[in-house]
Amino acid sequence: MGSWVKKQVLGKGTFGTVSLAVPCFPKDSLHIPAMAVKSADFKNSSSLQKEAKILYELRDCPGIVRCFGEDVSVEDGKRVYNMLLEFAPGGSLKDLIRQSGGHLPESDVAEYTRTILEALSYMHGKGYVHCDIKPGNILVFPSKDGGNNVKIADFGSLAKRSDCEVKGCPGTLLYRSPESILFGSTKASGDIWSLGCTVVEMLTGKSVWPTAIFQLKGVSELLREIALGKRPPKIPQNMSDEGKDFLGKCLVRDPKLRWSADMILNHPFLQQVKKSARLQDQQMNNNKAMPCLARSSNCDDIWIHEELQAALFISGWRRFYQKQKRPSLVGRTLSHAQAADRKKKLFCTNCLLRLNILEWLPSLFKGSITKGAQSQR
User: Which residues does the annotation mark as catalytic?
Assistant: First the structure.
């Protein structure tokens, strides 16, 4: 625990505690500003150690929370096992639903669902079943475009696909599939059922099962309704036809008729998200091709100023740049007519300066290398 320190407790569970931790040396090689540390008494940390090994095996999937490593510390005279995870500033998907007024837009739901399904497909391909997919176990991270990315977390209930029946099947009751309650099944189809329940909650802010049954008649009645109920879970009517059909493929009582993660990834409900993502990528590539023309007139000068300053700082020509810079290269707000004319001039000036920099750099580096060699002699 010499390179990081716990700051505050984020939550507690049967395994132990989750704390926010920060590196003692902020400028370390990992550049990790904050971490979520799962801790447990070393004697009772076998489940956490198992989870760390699984996360290391699944580390190549972007839709699964990253594990930075393991550590053992001494706290209050006891050995404590710590699993270092990436910290989610946005909390969980459950928090996001609550902050959004109890429901999320269908376009966002489709995007999050696609990411979760891609992670499930990767996980199932490795022979694992999560067994506890729910909004509380989906973490939210900010994306570069100002939106959100989601990642699956909490692999304490994970099981091997070969384990067809398990006594005391893990998972949260409201998201468990009928076959997991009846037979203790831990097959991959159970994750798809849980995903369907999660999608309903993202859209409505409510569980797919009426909580009144649990409150008035007890857990036994809720178990009976999930496992033996004749009607399928209620699908929100304010969804698109593609969304309703998607949930119909997830919330099928017969696991043999339920679609797999690979199959449902090609569903039209998710394909529209891929189309919009491709359009966004294409637009971003167009912006990169002509960066000066893709920005507003008010920020063009500032952007060119920053670009040139960075390039010239690297080449060691800061003094030259300061002598040659013009008022147009220092951010100013201009009228529309002046901005249009100035933009054309700036684009030409930018191109010429870039060409000059490229011509100066080889000779500059050659001179610095020669001086370095002479000093070594």
Answer: 132
| Rounded distance between C-alpha atoms, residue 274 and residue 266, angstroms | 10
CA separation, residue 306 to residues 16, 198, 252, 329, 341 (Å): 48, 44, 56, 9, 21
Structural domains in the chain, sorted by start: 4-86 (3.30.200.20), 93-281 (1.10.510.10), 291-367 (no CATH)
289: left (phi over 0), alpha (psi -120 to 50) or beta: alpha
* Cα 118 to Cα 18: distance, rounded to the nearest angstrom: 26
φ, ψ of residue 2 in degrees (nearest 5) = -75, -20
Compute the radius of gyration of the chain from its Cα atoms: 27
Question: In this structure, are residues 232 and 177 in contact, taking their beta carbons and an 8 Å threshold?
Answer: no
Longest dimension (CA), the chain: 88
Which are the contacts of 259, defined by CB distance < 8 A and separation ≥ 6? 192, 249, 250, 252, 267
Name the pTM for this structure.
0.70
Residues 6+ apart with CB under 8 A from 120: 130, 133, 152, 188, 191, 192, 195, 261
Burial class (CB in 10 A: 0-12, 13-18, 19+), 336: exposed
pLDDT for 265-319, tens place per residue? 999 999 866 554 444 544 444 444 333 222 233 333 333 333 334 333 333 433 4
How many residues would you count in the chain? Answer: 377
Tokens of 289: 């091709």
In one-letter notation, the amino acid at residue 241 is D
